[in-house]
Amino acid sequence: MFEAIDQIFVALKHWVVGQFPAAWQPLGSVFLSIIPILAVFPLLFAITTIVERKTLGRIQNRLGPNRVGPFGLLQPVADGLKSLTKEDIVPYAADQVVHFLAPIALIVPVLLAFSVLPVGRNMVPIDLDAGLLFFFAVGAGSELAVFMAGWSSRNKYSLLGAMRAIAQMVSYELPLILSSVTVVMLVGSLSTVKIVEAQGEAYGWLLKWHVFTPWGLAGFLLFMIAAAAESNRTPFDIPEGESEIIAGYLVEYSGFKFALFFLGEYLGLFAVSSLAITLFLGGWHAPFSFLEWIPSYLWFFGKLSAFIMLFIWLRGTLPRLRMDQLMNLAWKFMLPMCLINIVVAAMWHFTAHWQFVGAVLCRWLLCGAAIGVPYLWLGDALFGEKKLAKRTYRFAD
Amino acid sequence: MDQGLRSELSKQGIFTTTLEGLYNWGRRNSVWPLQFGLACCAIEMIATTMARYDLARFGAEVFRPSPRQADLMIVSGTVTKKMAPQVVRLFNQMPEPKYVIAMGACAISGGPFKQGYNVLKGIDRYIPVDVHIPGCPPRPEALLHAFMTLQRKIDAQKLSGPERPRHLNTDAPSEFPVPKFGPHDLVPPYNPEVWQPPKMVRAV
Amino acid sequence: MSDAVVTPLEGVFAPLQFPEPGAPRQLNYSVAPKMSADGSVAGDFLEVAMGPQHPSTHGVFRMDVVLDGERVVKLKPVFGYLHRNHEKIAENASYLGSMPYTDRLDYFCSMTNNWAYALSVEKLAGLQPPERAEYIRIITAELTRLVNHVCLVGFLLQDMGALGTPLMYAFREREKILDLFEALSGSRMMCNYMRFGGCRVDLPAGWLENAKQVVENFPRFLDDFENLLSANEILIARTQGVGALSAALAINAGVTGPLLRACGVNYDLRKVDKYGIYERFDFRVPLGDHGDVYDRYMVRVLEMRESLKILRHALRDIPSGPIMDPKAKIRGFRPKIGEVYGRIEGPKGELGFYLISDGGPNPYRYRVRPPSLINLTILEDMCLGRNVSDVVVILGSIDIVLGEVDR
Amino acid sequence: METLEQIKGRITAIIPGARVDLIPNECPSNQPSLLIDQEHGVRIAEFLRDDPQLRLDYLSNVTGVDWPDTIVKEKVKVMKLVEGVETEVHGVVERKKQGYLEVVYHIYSIAHKHGPVIVRLRTNDRNVAVHLPSLTPIWRSAEFQEREIYDLYGVIFDGHPDLRRILMWDGFEGHPMRKDYVEPDDYEYEPTPHDEVLERARSHQARNAVL
After folding, report:
1. CB contact under 8 A, A397 and C284
2. pLDDT mean across residues, chain A
3. Residue D26: is its pLDDT beyond 50?
4. B82 touches chain D (CB under 8 A)
5. Residues B102, B108: contact at Cβ < 8 Å?
6. Domain span at residue D136?
7. Interchain CB distance below 8 Å, C53 and B36
8. Which of C389, C392, C393 has the highest number of chain A CBs within 10 A, making it the mutation to test binding with A?
9. Which of A307, A366, D134, D195 has minimal CB crowding within 10 Å?
10. In which band, very low, low, confident or very high, does the pLDDT at B200 lie, cut at 50, 70 and 90?
11. Residue in C397, C322, C388 with CA at minimum distance from that of residue C136
12. Which alpha helices (H) appear in C104-246, and where do they start and end?
């Protein structure tokens, strides 16, 4: 029964594909995989915008949109309609072709990235052997799009934004990939499906999610920081820092192209969040074996929603870092930590056969020390020397 | 389709609309103002977006700093002659359909600073204004009222016919001439296509 | 000027050197931008005009910035986009007629502007406000200081990119104080409340209780603010060591208010001039040691706490009595020939009014000493060698209001 | 703090050739000032700043004032032939008093917490000889304020590092804060039946009719 509900979409697809003539079945299968992606994630984007605006409102002591439709739920529809019908301005001095292509170049790779993400048991559009590699390869396309947008607009602010974006995204690509290398080492596969399956085993009733290991926890945190930077979210929203460079690379985009950028950015956020879920949080698995009866896709989207809420929360609370601080963080802190984390993952792997009493505790302490001591030392070396601290103040009468 | 049939259908769970209605509904409910403050009224404009008044309820909290993404320009405060060309240029940079709210006495007529040599006596001398709000500065409630007035105005617009709005009329200009700095005043002192000095009729 | 090559960061911290009189002022550029004949910059530099429409110039202010990458090598402020001819209008209006215009100078702090102007005219005409009026003035002025500082902290965080949340909390508190002002004067922002020799109207019934309530609740909000912000690592990283200003340069450049005190200079007009009845109150002047953005932020936060002390004291001790000097004339007010410079400690710095009377109903010369404008003198010195993000934060920490800068 | 007489005495003793006048102020504020001459302005300012007793390190306020040319009527006794006899007659002679631009500096001491010492500088006339020494090299706080006075009054400060218009645009002509500046006629007067206002309103309407 539970399994049937879990597999209902898979079964549906198989049934529909079965109706096609045999020669058309591969093509039909592809279409039936693409359409849900095109339907679900943009819809999720629409929901996210309204949820974000309402949540930010709550964080900021106010109501948020509540006039358009019931509880303001139709707000994204109105925004979409408005964006669609808005005049599209291409600046006279802009490079017309590149200016036009930039939003497309952003959307397409992001959508491609979703094709290797398993959103449920047996629910992955294509199970590539090098799925993770594919994800990062197409994900790197967004840098190009952002730079195209900033460069072609011929605006000084957009140029600054593009430069910031390219520096930031290239820098954070490295920790992003290196922190996921640990997973590949331990699982022994680049396939996202295999990675999720590897986390399906259980210690008793607790599942073997990677985040429940010292290297996984550290890797997850590093991955999330890099993911926030990669998707330009607070506190790393430097490329479009509104208070500094207006809207960064988006400054000359209007109407639907702007909406496409917005969409692309949120889809990118969903994609890296989904990858974080896949790599470290057990993908579509439940955390406990006795909760496995809940359909796998619900687990996946539940986790994704939690991630989205986390990002909204961060957006509502944190100020922004500065460019040089961001770069320092990436190259002087994140990168060494990722490299150390690879060693820790290896230690965890080679101590897996320890059987004596307290072996698990021993392994945890060992690996925890291996990652924790450099963390403290690096943090002190990076931020301690500048003597940044709360100060005391004198008073004159 | 008349009103009776429409209400009859909606009772049975069928929602009907016209293209015009849908278009105006979308525009009306997603008016993003330009993040652009001029003077004292700008503080009341900010106060309007804050917790007590919360402009966000209407879906208008998305203050875009770039004119390319904005729909509404709230001219909040005194427009000086030095600033007027920039205001007109910003308005020109906004994509159609675009709206202007002249907030406060200064933006309408120069207000208390009317006698100043560097003060523009009303932004409607150069760009078309949709809603004027008097007050010095207007209270946030007044800005909310102006916003709702603008929404009603959008709602009443027709897609075709002689009364169609500016952005659907290919003959109407979308950009307005930017005034130049002269030796003492802006050149021209006003845009005659938008504004004409009122005729004073006085019994002498 | 020394010939030593200075790195950009040292340039910012360089000790003050006085150029020879008449010599063109030299600034410590790390790389001098190559100027072509028409004044534009050639080479690998990017000239950006930040403003007059920019989200964090706090109004219609413009900075012509020359960037090397993102590092500022030249920064010229451009004013005048809100030059509303306040002084010219005031010279053609009666003394009292200028009072509403002073509200619109620094539109966050109408009460202190009123007070500075009233104080100057009182000095000119030899008026003495009665006891109760002095108390009311102190209460409203300190409430104004709270409004200004709390909003400034909000805007500063906004400039740092904290999507409005601190600003919303700040404006929530501001609204409470504005309610008090509205009950008192009938207007939220433009109070137009003080008169020469006293105040316009007496406190309405129940106002003192409401004010006490606000003052009692304010520290809780300040505690929240401090817990959330003052130790926030991103805030510290963005502000400490940014835009540091030496005391000597600050004094020479006429910087006043919290900016000056953040450099460690003990100069608060409430203590120095003892205007009004400030010497009766027990409060302290917080001083910073580094003169950077963080010190300015903290000095303001601490000043709010001191203001609360004054407020508590004043709300407790306020006497009853008249609120206007009986000698004050409303109609036909013509001070004797003479001149006066009166100044008070406004929330942004020394706010002064210089008036010349020729015996007529209008001032012959009416001049505002705008703290915001003069505090901007050192903007370029603080920003050179920093990057664009820092410029925004430094500008935010100076706390300008364009109505006062351009008048 | 020393009185202005003492300061004046010390200035004239230390800086030879300096002319310093004391301008009294009779009104209740009692803020008299020192009028210093243009040639020694910078020297005097430097003295005021660096003198250990004065230490006037903080220039608070710089103000420009316009004193237009005035017609002074003076009663004089003239000898006149009245009916062939030379008699003394009271006559009125109109004399043009040369106007000038004035810059007033309010200087305080943060080190000693005293002040203000008010210093004035005057130009020779209002149109040609409008040069004054800039005190910006002594006190940087004068930088923007002197630019403002240049913009609004037309005083040219010699030695100012960056003397440009500050509030008005670059192509602007004239100095709007001067008493004789004619503002552009670009607004309607309220319809009050007041003679002067009505006249201005009429001329305004006539101008608009031409446009």
Report:
1. yes
2. 84
3. yes
4. yes
5. yes
6. 4-67+101-163
7. yes
8. C389
9. D195
10. low
11. C322
12. 110-125, 131-159, 165-185, 207-225, 233-239
Tokens of C398: 């100076």
Query: What count of CB pairs under 8 Å joins C to D?
Result: 130
Minimum Cα–Cα distance from A56: chain B residue: B56
Beta pairing partners, C342: C353
Between chain A and chain B, how many beta carbons pairs sit less than 8 Å apart? 99
The CA-to-CA distance between both ends of chain C, in Å, stands at: 35
| pTM score, whole prediction | 0.87
Domain assignment present for residue D144? The answer is yes
Residue C73 forms contact with B (CB below 8 Å): no
The number of CA neighbours under 13 Å toward the Cβ of D81 is: 1
Q: What is the separation of C-alpha A245 from the centre of its chain, rounded to a whole number of angstroms?
A: 24
Cα distance between residue C288 and residue C267, in whole Å:
12
Test B47 with C171 for CB contact under 8 angstroms.
yes
Contact D26/C336, CB-based, under 8 Å? Answer: yes
C293: tokens are 């953005």
Structure tokens at D179: 């008493």
Tokens of D40: 């020694």
Q: Quick check: is D72 in a domain? A: no
Residue of chain C with shortest Cα separation from B46? C171
Task: Find the mean pLDDT for residues C306-332.
Answer: 86
The span from the CA of A310 to the CA of C389, in Å, is 25
pLDDT tens column, A280-307: 888 888 877 777 778 888 888 898 999 9
State mean pLDDT over B173-199: 84
To the nearest whole Å, the CA of B200 is away from the closest chain D CA by 8
Determine if the peptide bond prior to B188 is cis (ω within 30°): yes
Helix axes A96-113, A141-152, angle to 10 degrees: 160
Which residues is C140 bridged to in the sheet? none
Chain segment D181-207, per-residue pLDDT in tens = 877 777 666 555 556 666 766 777 676
Q: Give the count of domains, chain D.
A: 1
Measure CA B136 to chain center: 18
Residue C31 has pLDDT above 50, yes or no: no
CB nearest to A244's CB, from C264, C288, C392: C392
Q: Is C272 close to D113, i.e. CB distance below 8 A? A: yes
Closest CA to A180 of A140, A148, A211: A211
- D31 chain-C contacts, CB cut-off 8 A: 339-341
How far is the alpha carbon of B68 from chain A, nearest alpha carbon, in Å?
Answer: 5
Residues counted in chain A: 397
C chain contacts of residue B136, beta-carbon cutoff 8 Å: 190
Highest averaged pLDDT of the listed ranges B200-204, C95-99, C138-142, D65-69: C138-142
* Nearest chain C CA: its distance from B131 CA (Å): 22
Q: Is residue D112 part of a domain?
A: yes
**B185·D184 Cβ contact <8 A:** yes
Whichever domain contains D130, its CATH number is 3.30.460.80
- Residue found by looking up tokens 């990283």 in the block: C237
In a domain, D193, yes or no: no
Q: Name the residue among A282, A274, A279 with its Cα closest to residue A307.
A: A274
C-alpha A159 chain-centroid distance: 25
Query: 């399956």: which residue's tokens?
Result: A197
Distance CA B7, CA D20 (A): 90
The letter for the amino acid at C66 is V
Of C82, C88, C175, the CB nearest to B39: C82
Every domain of chain A and the residues it spans: 83-350
Q: Which residues pair with D157 in a beta bridge?
A: D132
pLDDT (tens digit per residue) in A305-346: 999 999 888 888 888 888 888 888 888 888 988 998 898 888
Residues of A in Cβ contact (< 8 Å) with C247: none
Which chain A residue has its CA at the smallest distance from C227's CA?
A390
Contact A316 C163 (CB under 8 A): yes
C60 and B83 in contact by Cβ < 8 A?
yes
